[in-house]
Amino acid sequence: MAFSIYDFTDLAQSIHNGLSSSLTPVWTTVIEWAIIGILYILFVALFGLFLVYAERKVCAAIQQRIGPNRVGPYGFIQTIADFIKLLMKEIINPKGVDHFLYNLAPYIVIATVFIIISMFPFAPGLQSFDFDIGVFFVTAVSSVGVIGILLAGWSSNNKYSLIGGIRSGAQIISYELSVGLSLITMIILSGTMQISGIVNGQADGWFLFKGHIPAFIAFVIFIIAGTAETNRGPFDLPEGESELTGGFHTEYSGIKFAFFFLAEYMNLFIVAAMVTIVFLGGWQPLHFGTGNGFNAAMDLLPPIIWFFLKVCTIILLIMWFKWTFPRLRVDQILTLEWKYLLPINLFNIILMSVVVLMGWHW
Amino acid sequence: MKALFNYIKEVLGGFYTLLQGLGVTGKYLFTPWNYVTQSYPENREKLQMFERFRGEVIMPHNENNEHKCTGCGLCELACPNGSIEIISKSILTEDGKKKRIIDKHIYHLGMCTLCNLCVRACPSDAIIMGQKYEHAVYNRSNLTKVLNKPGSKIMEGIKE
Amino acid sequence: MTNEELKLTIAKLCSSAEFKDGAQFLEVIVPAADLHHLCRELRHNGETAFDYLFCLTGVDYPTYFEVVYHLDSTRHRHVVVLKARTASREYPVLDTIGDIWPTAYSHEREVYDLLGVRFNNHPDMRRLFLEDGWGFPLRKDYVDPVRIVER
Amino acid sequence: MAEYREIIFNSDKIQTDDYFVNIGPQHPSTHGALRIVAKLEGEIVQSIDPVIGYIHSGIEKMCESLSYPQLIHLTDRMDYLSAHMNNEAVCLCIENALQVEVPERVKYIRTIMDELTRIASHQLWWCATGMDMGAMTTFFYGLRDREPILDIFEETCGARMTFNYNVPGGLMFDIHPNFQKRVKDFIRYFRKKLPEYDTLLSGNVIFKERTKGLGVLSKEEAIAWGVTGPSGRASGYSCDVRKLHPYSAYPYVKFEEKLATDGDTFWRYQLRIEEMWESMKIIEQLIDNIPEGDFAVKMKGVIKLPEGEFYQRVESARGEFGVFIVSDGKKNPYRLKFRSPGFSNLFVLNELVKGVKIADLVAIMATLDLVIPDIDR
Lengths: 362, 160, 151, 377
Known about the structure:
The complex is a heterotetramer of chains A (362), B (160), C (151) and D (377).
Chain B: H1 2-29, E1 56-58, E2 66-67, H2 74-78, E3 84-92, E4 98-108, H3 117-121, E5 128-130, E6 144-146, E7 153-154
Parallel strand pairs in B: 2-7
Antiparallel strand pairs in B: 1-5, 3-4, 4-6
Chain C: H1 3-13, E1 18-21, E2 26-30, H2 35-44, E3 52-60, E4 65-72, E5 79-85, E6 93-95, H3 103-115, E7 118-120
Parallel strand pairs in C: 2-5, 6-7
Antiparallel strand pairs in C: 1-2, 3-4, 4-5
Chain D: H1 2-9, E1 19-23, E2 35-41, E3 44-51, H2 59-63, H3 68-75, H4 83-98, H5 104-132, H6 137-157, E4 166-167, E5 170-171, H7 179-202, H8 205-211, H9 219-224, H10 229-233, H11 241-244, H12 265-287, E6 308-316, E7 319-327, E8 335-339, H13 341-347, H14 349-352, H15 358-368, H16 372-376
Antiparallel strand pairs in D: 1-2, 2-3, 4-5, 6-7, 7-8
Helix pairs in contact in D: 3-4, 4-5, 5-6, 5-12, 5-15, 6-7, 7-12, 12-15
């Protein structure tokens, strides 16, 4: 059983071979699904908790505070303690809610997260699905999450929730466009929609550097639109703490609230991971050209560490936005999308097409 | 063309202000050791209140268990919300005269607004403001205190 | 305008006004019936131009209520204090001046809430701080054995 | 399900009704127990009705049974952010009624304290405004810079918020020996930090877009509704009591009364930032020149005001604060009325919010700088 931290293909293959040698194909598949499912659940829970902790520490640093420091060393177990508290809380079903939809909404939101994460290659060989329309699939599924938020807002039978839910709908549907268009810009450069293909195409340099100015513009727009998609930072209108007290999740408590909470942070991860895959080379180390000493030095760090390093940097950036900027108003969010991001994006696609056609990229 | 130029200027100018904002917070983000928070229960020993800090009304006693309060009742009169009650008793002095002295100086911390008027009114500086700041108790009746210690006497040389 | 000139002007507008030189401001006691008319004149007359009502309050006297209006002019910077007395303590009623200075609406609601003086033509004569049927706490004969402790 | 279908397919049965949202009494952006009943159409506010009285403490009634020195400590608890000005207003009113001239030293110290209070109040307002707009970080920066001022207060007055530092005829204590050094240190520190406020919030394109041209109050409206303080001055209404009816040491100092003409939310915001600069100028002019002398004049044991009515106006952090005392010659006032700036400023809100979004309602409310105990008293 060959194992290498640099390439997980052999490991996955050997597990598969080991299972299929002693079991029928049906059972092999079932057990593989179970292993993958457990791994993803563990990953979402642990990374979500880590992100909550990181967010608290980042905002504390920005605000010249210490942040969580009571439970465990440097408050590291704080989020776990909070999670246990949320699990043990009584689940309250307010009077007058639409029970079926009210209970369904958090599961829709969290399920979307799992579907999208299954598309991501964390390292060579660590990817469960690899369609040839991978990027398209990710954008399509990510807009399913908004249904959960809309349902939560509507079924809570609360005016604040309703306003929050509707705001969220308007916002995500608009920004879906910018996310899609900036991805299209990069697909023009990469020539494929398959996620593994996009990552492999960046072996000799990340697309952010390969695509020159249009790639950089697409990068900025993708980060803005992605922040808006996650309902975070200056775009957190659906929650709108100072106006709507809690927005769409005002009426949720206990584990159902935890689902929304976890989903928000995992959406943050999804956006950061998409940025990493499409612009920053996925798990590819920082390469310039092919076969020089610099590339060899960069190859020493395992790809999985490269991937999470890049993801965490992007997450830090998005958290930094959230704790700096004031919130936009609902009409300004739409203005920003339709009057600024969309025209710039369309222009950018043309620019990128010209760059690719003329062969100015490398 | 001018409109296009203005549009680009607007977008870039907006971006610049955002970057400036990020610069302000970034300065603190990347120096996380410069925090201003005080870890409260840990620094309890070091925590020094200012000398004029008004925590509660106390009556200082010297080593012979003597205080300066004559029981004149001026603090009771000065208090705006009735948090001081003075109960006096009369005793016979050595030369056979009757004299009223203080029996109990009752102070309701729960009603006190720490306005310092009683300390100001006291002619013999018998009561002062203490520096204690942790007043939480489990029972409200514990907030009612008797300021003169049991068995205490008035100091020599304090005139009525 | 000096206080003397103001006196003359006001005497012209309202013959039954009584004057009193207060410690700071000119105080005018206006009959309740003339109050609205006089206020409107003082507000819109170019020489007086009292456009800023900076304080409106009520005082409870043994036989009547007095509502005190402090008026200031942002143009001429002179101040006058108008006082209107209600006819009785049982049914205290005055005219509203909220149509002249809109800020008076909320202050009149406060006076109604705390003293029970009603204002005619006020569009929204509800209690402001307290519940309906509470009583009028700033009246001298208000008793509340629970919340007011006499020393 | 059947009723839904009936409603959806028989559209003449759909009825529209007014949509009311209760903002408060427990709501993050009302800064206290204020309730606003907003009538909405979608996200657009049609009209609002402020409901107050949740923390009414009957201070005016209590004052009627307290003697004059005693009632001053109650004014701390009204507008707790400009407690010094409130204290001073009552003291000035009593001193004027008794024709007592306080020493120069008292005037200087009172003025410095007033301006420090004003800066502290505006800092807290800045925190809260940023937070209402969704920028949480401003809250911590503002409180961080407010801390040195509160330390100065604690060292000299003995308390951080409810000082009760002014007494009729002077001050309760003399200033602490460290006072001048600490104030100068603070001014030096804050001159560096205040530009940060501008880059972080006022210069921010999102903030400008959200506040410019929003909730415009014209000068005539401001006067008619009695809106004073920075909110009134943003409309071009010159209403600074420090200039118009100078008291304490204000006649001796040079400062500008900042005025704007737009009267929108942005200028109400900007004027408060500029007022902090002006306040620092005033303190710098006074802090080195505090004259020697007594910190209080000797007053009678029982203070009785002559019969009559007395009114004193001061400029608190929120606007014109007035004390109206009706005295019948006894040791406690016959009637005492506080003209609080927040009360007048609150009721103009209905004029400002017609046709704006909920988020704007919060922004407008923030820049009117409402302190609820000041309104409820």
